[in-house]
Amino acid sequence: MTRLRDVAERAGVSVSVVSRVLSEDPSLRVRDDTRARVLEAVRDLGYTQNHAGRALRLRWSGAVALLVPDMNNAIFAEVSRGVEAAAAEADLVTLLGRSEWLDPENGRAARLCQQGRVDGLIVQLRDEERSPEILDLLPPGVPAVLINWHQHRGISSVAVDDEEAGRLATAFLLELGHREIGLVGGFAQTSTARARETGYRKALADAGVTRREAWTTRLGYTPEAGRAAFARLIDTPPLPTAVVVSNVNAAAGVLAAARDAAISVPEQLSVVTVHDTWIADHTNPALTAVRVPTYELGAESARTLTRVMHGERKQHVLVDDPPPLLVPRGTHAPGPHA
Amino acid sequence: MTRLRDVAERAGVSVSVVSRVLSEDPSLRVRDDTRARVLEAVRDLGYTQNHAGRALRLRWSGAVALLVPDMNNAIFAEVSRGVEAAAAEADLVTLLGRSEWLDPENGRAARLCQQGRVDGLIVQLRDEERSPEILDLLPPGVPAVLINWHQHRGISSVAVDDEEAGRLATAFLLELGHREIGLVGGFAQTSTARARETGYRKALADAGVTRREAWTTRLGYTPEAGRAAFARLIDTPPLPTAVVVSNVNAAAGVLAAARDAAISVPEQLSVVTVHDTWIADHTNPALTAVRVPTYELGAESARTLTRVMHGERKQHVLVDDPPPLLVPRGTHAPGPHA
DNA sequence: CTGAAAGCGCTTACAG
DNA sequence: CTGAAAGCGCTTACAG
């Protein structure tokens, strides 16, 4: 490996000059031919800065960690693409980690920060997590941003417009002539589940339609949760004519359970889901979905984190560009009041 | 942040002792009470080693980069879980990157290595990649392992038993009474596509069934490729009674195209795919699939990389535990020769 | 059994 | 316009 010193020797200058030329220090005055000699030596030797030396001196790692419950989930995979791209834009490298690293019994997240391996954290909590309080266990002063969470006091957060997504899905079904509309929701303690449910309720209220509590379930965002939610609906007749599902993975479960129960979608039950991952286009029938800007959510979370790392105070960002968009496919049909 | 020096002062010893106690240097003799004092000081101060200092001194970063074409693909997501877990086991942190970083125009992968930010690379090439030659552009001596590739000369590789997966899928259809069996394959230049096709051909040959070239397509591993492959099949009648699909994402495309063409699966066409990601369980009908150990592939690639980093010479690993397993679901039916 | 010292590669006041 | 020197936090021969 070639060091700064090797470059300096070849160019016949001191290491200070080389370092300053390379960092493009604006306060630096050098003769043009000196600078040229330095650059030439850098090129000839194929010099690259050693990261550890730089990090040690600058007390900064140039890395952030992205903590997700499960990369094997199209939503988080999409978020991670956005994080990675925006982080790279800011010359930050992204470390891949799991939400469980935050657990005190695990401690990996705290260690990573204390060791100075990462300068900040982007966190997606597991849905079954009690609450964002888990972040209070990190060493104080660690820059962190929570994604898919709205407005938690101590910490920055970035989320999409989940309320609007819930509202849009519901309004679409109302316009189609449905009035008996259920909600297959996420866990009540998660911020996104509450927001999507609020949107659903508001849309019903705006249309003067009364909500039936038995048609609302809050079992989570997995295919299994979707199956369980469907089972519960079918156990407490009458069945609604349509459901809003808060998550596309759960929606896939609803579809599978409906098929098993010989309830045909969309003839007997319309389904509109939040989140338009590619799975939505590959169920049968293909899912009518509300697309939310997942990639942008990831990108914005990385940008927010860099701001926090640069000392800006905590902030709550709502990513609403592009806004939630209804993508009609095959799981909706006109309702009885059309 | 507390430094080694702070611990040393509090314990009333020199930094050397603290460092050696912490690294559990076996050649070290210390009095038990000295060691106890050191450990107590570490605990009291909440000391953690600074990573940059350590990395600079040891000339080692403790990180590996995983380069994949697209995290938004259940197969790579599963692989990444395995990589991350096995890397963590070896006290290595995993950096998330994209295969395009290898491109000379991009250069990020080379830079990461030269900077000493990562000690090695785990690479999944894009399918449209010309060949593994792209790795020759890395700085010489960079430890790297190619995943989902069999036996490339210059570089270590780890793969699953793709030939057996192809054979198993085909044999299953033959036993069901099919003899007109097509192959929806991957690009011919990829190692996995060739291996799966070899397995398919051998199974046919073993059963004394003649292969029809028009029933073999090699368009890739995406849903779009699956759709295109199906279109081609239907354009050149007769249709086979069954197809082996080399990839689950392509299989989802085949199913969607069959639906659009009103060809019913499995009544008119049986489909068996390689790769059992969760999507296989959520198409309609659910896909009969050959499960290959994707997570283990990731884990083994991290282990192989650590071996290479420790100086072992290049190796080609076949991950065959657990072996490919046929998971029967809803896309197969008895064939005309049953 | 323990400590003083060199050095990993870098940046940045400071001096000239 | 350029250089000598200190120091970021660590490990490890070497000395005693």
Any chance you could write out the topology, listing elements then pairs?
The structure is a homodimer of 338-residue chains.
Chain A: H1 4-11, H2 15-22, H3 32-45, H4 51-58, E1 63-68, H5 74-89, E2 93-98, H6 108-114, E3 120-123, E4 144-147, E5 156-160, H7 162-175, E6 181-185, H8 191-206, E7 216-218, H9 223-235, E8 242-245, H10 248-260, E9 270-274, E10 288-291, H11 294-309, E11 316-319, E12 325-327
Parallel strand pairs in A: 1-2, 1-3, 3-4, 4-5, 5-11, 6-7, 6-8, 8-9, 9-10
Antiparallel strand pairs in A: 10-12
Helix pairs in contact in A: 1-2, 1-3, 5-11, 7-8, 9-10
The first copy, chain A, binds a DNA duplex (16 and 16 nucleotides) through helix 2 and helix 4.
Overview of the molecule:
The structure is a homodimer of 338-residue chains. Chain A is α/β, with parallel strands linked by helices. The first copy, chain A, has 3 domains: 4-49, 434 Repressor (Amino-terminal Domain) (Orthogonal Bundle), CATH 1.10.260; 59-160 and 294-319, Rossmann fold; 162-292, Response regulator (Rossmann fold), CATH 3.40.50. Helix content of chain A is 39%, strand content 16%. Chain A is built from 11 helices and 12 strands. The first copy, chain A, has helices at 4-11, 15-22, 32-45, 51-58, 74-89, 108-114, 162-175, 191-206, 223-235, 248-260, 294-309, and strands at residues 63-68, 93-98, 120-123, 144-147, 156-160, 181-185, 216-218, 242-245, 270-274, 288-291, 316-319, 325-327. In chain A, the strands form 2 sheets. Chain A has a 6-stranded parallel β-sheet, covered by helices on one side. In chain A, helix 10 links the parallel strand 8 (242-245) and strand 9 (270-274). In chain A, helix 5 crosses helix 11 and helix 9 (223-235) crosses helix 10 (248-260). The model of chain A has no long low-confidence stretch (mean pLDDT 94). Chains A and B meet through helix 4, helix 5, strand 2, helix 6 and helix 10 of A and helix 4, helix 5, strand 2, helix 6 and helix 10 of B. The first copy, chain A, binds a DNA duplex (16 and 16 nucleotides) through residues 1, 3-5, 13-17, 19-20, 23, 25, 28-31, 34, 49-59, 116.
